[in-house]
Structure formats: structure tokens, C-alpha cells
Amino acid sequence: MSWSDLAMNGRILIVDDAMENIQILHHALRDEHDVLFALNGEKALQIAHNQLPDLILLDAVMPGMDGYEVCAALRASAAVRDIPVIFVTALTHPEDETRALEAGAVDFISKPFNSAVVRARVRTQLTIKRQADAMRELTLTDVLTGVANRRSFNEAMDNEWRRCARSEQPLAVIMIDIDHFKNYNDAYGHQQGDQCLQQVAAAMKRCAGRPPDLLARYGGEEFIILLPAVGGDGAEVVAKRILEEVRSLDLPHSASSVSDQVTVSMGVAAVHPSDDNDPEALIRTADALLYRAKETGRNRYCI
Ligand code: GH3
Ligand code: MG
Ligand code: MG
Ligand code: MG
């Protein structure tokens, strides 16, 4: 996809209490975009959450919730916070425009508008949004394996820790390290080492790939799995599956002292998040248990 493609084929939500205004905007945008519409603020918020449009065109003056309130409500909700909002309104005073921008709008178009200008401004905002999304994706993804990186893990851990503390649910982590991976590189070369990392990551993803579970690359040949709302027993089930899944990859490792296949060792730890403990302590525990798994023969988990 080229940068110019980023502006095309968005899903646009038009919010206006007058159907004729919606029709004019629909007419201006329908050739390039999928168009949704809402006739009031409450409905707009509902559609925003359910359909996650790429952009919202928002009327300012509406009965019930007005555009400023809708904009504030969007900003207050993590799921829809990043959807750009353009005000399209009969209001023309600089104070109205300033208020809209301060409420979080990215642009402000006064009626009567020119359709070509609306199309161009929509394209610009879609491009910016998609560049920002792509950038964020890059900053959160490990290039080699495609799984989450450590930054992404830390963000998820902070969020899930708080969520589990609030809902009084446990939270588990599994630290995973490939056995004798230095020897693997020495025996098969760094490039095949990279491929091995990719395959092991994919195998683990099959065991814990669905949100809110998160598999991340934690360091060179070290991975970590975050399991929100999962206790020790549930985490142990995942660890067992990982041993099984990695075994069934059947990757030869002639330089391992453990097996003639690639294997992993794991430390499994769970906790009830509260003020008396913290994520760092949980990770330290999992790390110590991983060390024990190495010490006691590798190709196993300790819990
Ligand atoms: P142990 O069983 O005790 O974990 O032994 P090990 O050899 O796996 O552990 P060690 O920490 O000594 O070596 C880790 C190796 O992982 C060394 C390093 O070159 C390799 N490694 C780290 N990141 C990458 C990578 O991105 N690609 C490749 N091919 N190798 C990597
Ligand atoms: Mg209106
Ligand atoms: Mg290792
Ligand atoms: Mg290591």
C-alpha cells in the first residue's frame, strides 16, 4: 500500500440532526468511502463503538447531546479516542472553532461548504490517522517474529494489572527461553537461528494468541506470555501446551544436551494483583522459576 492509498476507502460516520445535511455529505463522499450516519449524539457514540469508523463528521448544534459533548465523550473512551473528528457546522465564529479544536476535533468546516474541499480535508485526515496507526503498530511489534515487543508487553501489563486488581481476578505470566540457543546458532548459523525464533514464536502463539492473552518477545531468545484473569492452574495448562506444540515443530537441534530437537524452558507465576505486590515482583518470580527449570534439566516448566 502506498501513502496515497492510505487516504482512500475509509468508513466515515456522518452525524447531523438534519437528514438533508447528511444527504449532501453522503453525496460528496460516497464514491470514495463507506458512509454511516447518525441523527443524534447518543446514536453516534453507539455506532462509533460498534463500527469503529475511520473518521467522524460531526454537526455542532443538535438537540440532546451537542457536537461538543459527543466529541468529549469520544475522547473519554479508550476504544474510540483515536478516531479523528471533523466538525461540519453552520457556526462560523472563531470561538466556536476554537472550542471544537479544544474539545479534540482535528478540523472545522463551516457550512455552506464546497464538496471538493470536504473530500480533500477528509482524505488528509485519513492519511494522518493511518500513518499514526502504522507508526504505532511498528513501535509495538517485534520485527523478526511479528509478535508484540517488550514495550507493548509493558503497556498491556500495566493495563491488565489494574483491571485484574479492580475485578479481583488473578493474573499469570510465563517466561520462556529457548534451550541451548547459542549452540543452535553455532551449529546451524544465525539465519536459521532467526527462522527457529519465528517458528517457536508462531507455535507459542497457537497456545496463547487470543486477546487479552499476549505473547511478547522479551529479549533475544526469551519470550513472555501475559495471561489476565488466569491463575496458576490455567497458566500450567498453557505451559504444558507450549511444551507439546514446540515438540511437534520437530526442529532438529543436534547441539543440544537435552534432546535432539529444539526445546524451551519456562517459569510460570501467578498472583492476585493488589497494592501489596507489583508486576516487577511477578516477573522476578517467573524469572527465578525459569532459572530453576534450566538448572533441573531444561525442556520443562517450573511453577
Ligand atoms: P540456555 O539453555 O541456558 O538458555 O542457553 P542459551 O545458549 O540459549 O543461552 P545464552 O543466553 O547463552 O544464549 C542466547 C543466544 O541467543 C545467544 C544469542 O546469539 C542468541 N540470540 C539472541 N537473539 C537472537 C536473534 O535475534 N537471532 C538469532 N539467530 N540468535 C539470537
Ligand atoms: Mg444541527
Ligand atoms: Mg536460552
Ligand atoms: Mg536467554
Notes on the structure:
With 303 residues, this protein is α/β, with parallel strands linked by helices. 48% of the residues lie in helices and 18% in strands. The strands form 2 sheets. Strands 2-1-3-4-5 form a 5-stranded parallel β-sheet, sandwiched between helices. A 5-stranded mixed β-sheet has the order 7-8-6-9-10. β1 (11-15), α1 and β2 form a beta-alpha-beta unit. α1 (19-29) packs across α5 (115-140). The two termini are 46 Å apart. The chain binds 3'-deoxy-guanosine-5'-triphosphate (GH3) and magnesium ion (3 copies). The site of one magnesium ion has 3 residues, from loops.
In a few lines, what is going on in this structure?
This protein is α/β, with parallel strands linked by helices and 303 residues long.
Keywords, separated by commas or semicolons:
single chain; 303 residues; alpha/beta; five-stranded parallel sheet; five-stranded mixed sheet; 10 helices; 10 strands; 48% helix; binds 3'-deoxy-guanosine-5'-triphosphate; binds magnesium ion
